[in-house]
Write a structure and sequence with these properties.
Elements: E1 2-7, H1 12-16, E2 22-29, E3 32-36, H2 42-48, E4 58-60, H3 66-69, H4 72-79, E5 89-93, H5 94-97, H6 106-109, E6 114-118, E7 123-126, E8 129-137, E9 144-151, E10 154-159, E11 177-184, E12 193-194, H7 195-205, E13 209-213, H8 223-235, E14 238-241, E15 246-253, E16 256-263
Bound molecules: zinc ion (2 copies).
């Protein structure tokens, strides 16, 4: 399984000044690609990596906030070439799809094969990949879910946006890789996790590798490296800060899971794809 970070931005300034990219991340298993949380610029980030958006089989939103969904309509249109090649799936919480102000336009949905609402305990087994919604996070009154993704004998957890809650890490026990959205360095009375909040999460979940991402301004510069080192020291869990275009490859041999990390080379650095 490969995870490719198409963005690591969290707070407003980091996202809207594009100090870090905000395209979410891709999960790949064999030829299958699932795009999780395609925020602003997701299409451009795919093109930069040389990935044809027509090859994305599913889009999954953990919640409706714009930094996680800004490019969802663009991607549905790119996946289906504006309706010429119908197909693909979309999974999202109810308040992203229904009500007065859905973030996925109804007009585009008819081009998809499958549109499914995520609820607590929701699970889909799909082309050998299992996606499970772990927990309804407390996050500004917006329906938000963490994820566990399984396939090829490996497990990945994604602790999405939300407030720290007792026992959150227990829900991710047994994952090989845990991605945690640590927006801030120190806890604030907000519905976002901080590096400090991640300590009990990592201590409880005990993944092989943890990756922190979704950074606000105060996390940038040397703070990201210091934060990863701090978490490693406090919990004994190897921890890396995510970088834009970082890829993590996980594979199992017998009883052991191997994890490799690299930065992908951009095929189209300007984000302008193809030969003219
Ligand atoms: Zn959010
Ligand atoms: Zn967010």
């Amino acid at each position: 399984m490969r995870i490719l970070f198409l963005g690591t931005a969290g707070g407003r300034r980091v996202t809207f000044k594009q100090m870090r990219a905000s395209g979410g991340f891709l999960v790949e298993s064999g030829p299958w690609r699932v795009h999780v949380d395609p925020g602003p610029g997701a299409l451009v980030r795919l093109i930069q990596c040389g990935i044809d958006p027509g090859t994305i089989e599913a889009i999954l939103l953990t919640h409706r906030h714009l930094d996680h969904s800004g490019d969802v309509n663009t991607l549905v249109e790119a996946r289906t070439m504006g309706g010429w090649t119908k197909g693909g799936s979309l999974f999202a919480p109810k308040d992203a799809l229904e009500g007065e102000d859905p973030v996925v336009f109804r007009y585009h949905r008819k081009n998809l094969d499958r549109v499914e609402v995520i609820t607590s305990g929701w699970e889909v087994t799909w082309n050998g990949l299992v996606f499970r919604a772990v927990w309804p996070h407390l996050h500004h009154g917006v329906e938000t879910y963490g994820l566990i993704i399984e396939g090829e004998g490996v497990r990945v957890g994604y602790v999405a946006d939300g407030r720290q809650e007792d026992g959150l890490g227990e829900l991710y026990k047994g994952v090989d890789l845990l991605i945690v959205n640590t927006t801030f360095r120190r806890p604030r009375d907000m519905d976002h996790l901080s590096v400090e909040d991640a300590v009990p999460i990592l201590a409880q979940a005990r993944p092989r590798l943890a990756i922190i991402t979704h950074f606000s301004m105060e996390m940038l510069g040397k703070v990201v490296m210091e934060s990863a080192a701090y978490l490693e020291e406090k919990t004994g869990v190897e921890t890396l800060p995510a970088r834009d275009f970082m890829e993590i490859v996980l594979h199992r041999h017998g009883n052991e899971v191997f994890i490799e990390e690299a930065t992908v080379e951009l095929v189209h650095p300007l984000g302008l794809g193809g030969e003219v």
